[in-house]
Structure formats: structure tokens, C-alpha cells
Amino acid sequence: MTSAFFASIAATGFMVAFLHAALPTHWLPFVLVGRAQKWSAGRTLGVTLLAGLGHVALTILLGLILVIAGLALEPRLGHLFHWIVGGLMVAVGLFYIARGRHSHALPEAGRRTYASDRAAITALVVLLTLSPCEAFLPYYLAGMKHGWGAFLLLSVVLLAATAAGMLLFTGLSLAGVRRLNLDWLERYEETILGVALVLVGLAVAFLKT
């Protein structure tokens, strides 16, 4: 796998993580709760970032487990390993495409008021942390051939894309941009992620160098 090919994996992973973070479920609850609790814009963005860090941390932990399992299996599978990884990504992508009509409901945390700021922050952080970006996990396997440096780089990509998406759309909403026109993203997000996974999976399977 060449460095250029890995760069394309990282770029596609950034797109996947950013689109995932741009979903209203990843920023609208913070706006709604922030307004209900009368938080400043800075505090709302801070809580958003804190929840995003938890979201990313659990995803990285799951990615680490996946890579460790892959490293254990790779010596036994030999030259078949890249076919298995590519096939897994294609299968996950097809699953996302098939599930593409699924609607994303607003988390309960975004529809409640809280007796204290601590309760509100805890609810927002816990709910997002326990909902990792599972669509990004196959990218850790795809970059495994480049070693732990690639794992670290992909984790930075995940963090940057997630923070950018969540803070951007939270900030825009707080600034008074009332209509962000993201209905199309909510409708087609899983289809877009599925197509990206299928394409990367095919590349991993057939373009190994």
C-alpha cells in the first residue's frame, strides 16, 4: 500500500467523519440545551467540544481493539488479509446503503430541560460518547499496513473532522443561521457513507501495492 493510497484513505476518512459530525444529532441538542440553560455561546461550544472528545475517544478505543485483532490475525491469513479487509469494508458499506432510509431521531437530551448545568452537561456528554462513529472504524483496518503511525494519523483525522463538524454547525446555529439546509444530509448520510466505504474497500482489495 503506497503513501499516496494511504493519503486517499485518510482524506476519505475525514469526509466520512465530518459528514457524520454534521448530522443534527451531533450539534442541535447542544444548541437547544444551551438555550434552555441560558449558557453563553462559549460555554455551549465548550460542552460541544467536550462531548466530541468523548465521542472520538470511544471510537479510537474501538479502533485500537480492531487493529490489535487484525494484527493477531494477519500472520495466519497472509496474502488473503487485504481481501478480507476490503470485503469487510464493502459489506459494511452495502449495509449502510441498505439502511439509507433510516431517519435520525433527535436524542432525548436535546428535548429536555435540566435542574442543573451539571446534569445537562453529563447527559449530553454521555449520550454522544456512547454513540461512536462506527463508520470510521473500517478505516483503521484499511490503514493498518502502515503501522501505528497510520493509526495515530487516522485518529488525528477523526478528531479534526469531528471537532470541525460539530463546532462549525453549533456555532452557525448559535450565530443565528436558522436554516442550515441539512435535511439532504440527514436523508442521504448513510448512503454517502456506504458508497465511500464500498469504494475504499474495493481499492483495498484490488489495489494493494
Description:
The protein has helices spanning 3-21, 28-36, 41-77, 81-98, 117-129, 137-142, 147-174, 183-206. With 209 residues, the protein is mainly alpha-helical. Helix 1 (3-21) runs parallel beside helix 7. The model has no long low-confidence stretch (mean pLDDT 86). This is Urease accessory protein UreH-like transmembrane domain-containing protein. Keywords: Membrane, Transmembrane, Transmembrane helix.
Helix content estimate: over 70%
What is the chains' assembly state?
Answer: single chain
Structural class: mainly alpha
Order of helices and strands: HHHHHHHH
Instruction: Report the strand count.
Output: 0
Produce the secondary structure layout:
Elements (H helix, E strand, L loop, with lengths): L2 H19 L6 H9 L4 H37 L3 H18 L18 H13 L7 H6 L4 H28 L8 H24 L3
